[in-house]
Amino acid sequence: QVQLVESGGGLVQAGGSLRLSCAASGRTSSSLAMGWFRQAPGKEREIVAAISSGVSVYSTRYANSVKGRFTISRDNTENTVYLQMNSLKPEDTAVYYCAAGPYVGLVWRTNEYDYWGQGTQVTVSS
Predict the structure, then answer these.
(1) Between β-strands 60-62 and 10-13, what pairing exists: parallel, antiparallel or unpaired?
(2) Please, are residues 95 and 39 in contact by the beta-carbon 8 Å criterion?
(3) Are the C-beta atoms of 27 and 33 separated by less than 8 Å?
(4) For 89-126, how does the pLDDT look when each residue is reduced to its tens digit (9 = 90+)?
(5) 2-38, pLDDT tens digit by residue?
(6) Closest of 18, 42, 45 to residue 99, by C-alpha
(7) Which residues of 12-46 are buried (b: 16+ CB within 10 A; e: fewer)?
(8) DSSP code of 35?
């Protein structure tokens, strides 16, 4: 079993930055493909960024809406995945969720993730 706990959300002014963290337990992090999702009020949950399983060398992928502004990374020694969010916009406001799956490589489809955190609120003011 895998447990995921997100942290780092908060209120930030447009143009500002936040770094989200997701701590994983119950399984070695190098064996987990990881992703960040978000869900805004009245909208479906969407994938924001993903990073592959593995050791030292990783692949990443981003939604077009955040490409160039967000960066996903991981630290397997700490069993933690991060989402650095820069140049935040009001439309980035959402609950952000960390997800994991015991897969080789990078996972992009929502239904392929097996484990989910409880989410952390990110609010970007205009």
Answers:
(1) unpaired
(2) yes
(3) no
(4) 999 999 999 999 988 899 999 889 999 999 999 999 99
(5) 999 999 999 999 999 999 999 998 877 778 999 999 9
(6) 45
(7) beeeeebebbbbbeeeebebbbbbbbbeeeeeebe
(8) E
